[in-house]
Amino acid sequence: MNTENQESMAPQSEDQNHENLEQQILATESEQAKPEVKNLEITGDINAHLTEAGKWGSFLAILGFVFVGLMVMVGFVVSIVFAFLPSAALGGSPDFPFPTFLFGLIYVVMGALYFLPLLYLFRFSSRVKQALKYQSQEKLSSAFQNLKAHYRFIGILMIVVLALYVLMFIVMIFAGLFAGMAGFLGMPA
User: Fold this and answer.
1) Which residue ranges run through the membrane (predicted)?
2) pTM value surpassing 0.85
């Protein structure tokens, strides 16, 4: 019993003190990072702005769904037409590096990629209108959750597209350099 008291009263090591201090700092930072809002008032101006944002969001989402549907249909039609057309009829060589029906598949993939952010935008629009109509905090929270998901998806998609642009630019520079060097050395390109 005496040894337990002595161990508990023994000074902590420097590492333990450092870990305890880090835990206290992290706990304080996490409390400061998420301030709690008790009562957020939606004034008449805010209500009008959110109502208008909901209406425009619905319009854009529905219009986007129509264009995604058209894009997918065109993709299927192009895939079917190109599958039955010989590649020589398109001005290409019969030894085309990949099947021509994949051109239509690109439209289908682009339509599928654009569907999800449109769904998030539509959910935001419908839920913000419901939240204002029924004065529901949960619906408003869900609406802004969908708006966040919409912008996050679009942001990640833009990062991927920009990275692909940079990669294509680098590939084109090297392809041009190698083709130029082959021409300079008298080798066929």
Assistant:
1) 59-84, 96-122, 153-186
2) no
